[in-house]
Write a structure and sequence with these properties.
Helix content: under 10%
Shape: globular
Distance between the termini: 40 Å
Strand content: over 45%
Radius of gyration: 13 Å
Structural class: mainly beta
Order of helices and strands: EEEEEEEEEEE
Number of strands: 11
Length: 126
């Protein structure tokens, strides 16, 4: 089973950018579809973005469309989330998640992912 570790979070001013990374170990990432979710204080964990195994399809929440870009490098076993034009409402803990390509899944659905990282904090100041 793959293990996931996120990095790249931090404090940034509104309008700034951050790039999150999710490094996988244990198994090759190419066997998994990948997603990013976030959870703000007092709120449920919500879908942000997802990418299929071969990068052929990407998905975004309406709230981040046009500002965030998901990508992956299977050779480096890493998934990225480039976040531009950050807003205070983007403040949350961001989680990387994986689901095996052997499963039939809805990549925007949190419940379909069975492997999660520990999360990285993103704070956007106004």
């Amino acid at each position: 089973q793959v293990q996931l570790v996120e990095s790249g979070g931090g404090l940034v001013q509104a309008g700034g950018s951050l790039r999150l990374s999710c490094a996988a170990s244990g198994r090759t990432l190419s066997r998994y579809h990948m997603g990013w979710f976030r959870q703000a204080p007092g709120k449920e964990r919500e879908f942000v973005s997802a990418i299929t195994r071969s990068s052929s399809n990407t998905y975004y929440a309406d709230s981040v469309k046009g500002r965030f870009t998901i990508s992956r490098d299977n050779a480096k076993n890493t998934v990225y989330l480039q976040m531009n034009s950050l807003k205070p409402e983007d403040t949350a803990v961001y989680y990387c998640a994986a689901v095996s390509v052997d499963n039939i899944v809805i990549l925007t659905a949190r419940a379909h992912y069975n492997i999660w990282g520990q999360g990285t904090q993103v704070t956007v100041s106004s």
